[in-house]
Amino acid sequence: MVAQVIDGKAFAANVRGQVGAHVAKLKEEQGITPGLAVVLVGEDPASQVYVRSKGKMTVEVGMNSYEHKLDVDTAEDVLLALIDKLNNDPAVHGILVQLPLPKHLNEDLVINSIDPAKDVDGFHISNVGLLGTGQKSMVPCTPLGCLMMLRDHHGSLSGLNAVVVGRSNIVGKPMAQLLLGDSCTVTIAHSRTKDLPDVVRAADIVVAAVGRPEMLPGDWIKEGATVIDVGINRIDAPEKGEGKTRLVGDVHYESAAAVAGAITPVPGGVGPMTIACLLANTLTACCRANGLAEPE
Ligand code: NDP
Question: CATH topology for 33-115?
């Protein structure tokens, strides 16, 4: 079997197109422009790249983008004061604090200081609780993007065996909640899981969110399974020249694509969907704040 490639880049472009159309309508009919504030503390190179592309795409869909760049040694009370200001700013509908934060800042405290209604990353404890109890919430962007691609590919996910490898608060756990919400039978695997290859082999849907380059080989994948590779790992690529690198996922793509029914590539799979879902969440937050019908 040769897997169908799930084109996250095209899917994301489509989502952004729909968000853009809705934003244009909001502006024209209501005179409202959704606004997303992104807060970056420090100069982590990867975070800078993410923040830049988030800002660019926010503007491209017609929203207002507010970027706040703070020094690496910013005091916690200064950051909390900025979040308080954004919480009370009616032009700001979504607030994202780029993670990871420098070590001296308490990540939980900072995230939980964001107004849950503006928490477009879905990491606030209230949103985590709402998601876990099946109530309307802000859903974390990366798992939401994975779910959208899975629904698009399968139609109904009901009754399918899903294995999520990784149990982080930002990917693994919310992914498992979403799959459970769609009536999958869900297993969450992690670094202490016994017989991981056999656990993964039982899955109709595999979501890999481990952070280890090409850890899941093709012989762990059940024939015809759908593989969603969340991992983004930069590895040396001497074949491209001295000092060159390339991005790979947590799944060994070539061997997995030979047995899977469908697979997301890295890059061009989950990554682009994450930003598209951030924009969709900002639009949703804006509609809710103004008592308007939410986008589908
Ligand atoms: P974390 O490091 O927070 O979590 C990794 C998880 O993998 C942990 O639960 C850990 O288990 C588990 N794990 C580690 N080693 C093994 C192993 N040998 N066998 C089984 N499980 C293992 O990572 P994140 O969830 O934040 O991110 C995961 C990956 O996804 C990364 O590559 C990251 O770059 C990428 N990512 C991509 C995004 C995108 O937009 N595409 C967005 C966010 C992340 P334990 O809990 O036991 O330690």
Answer: Rossmann fold (3.40.50)
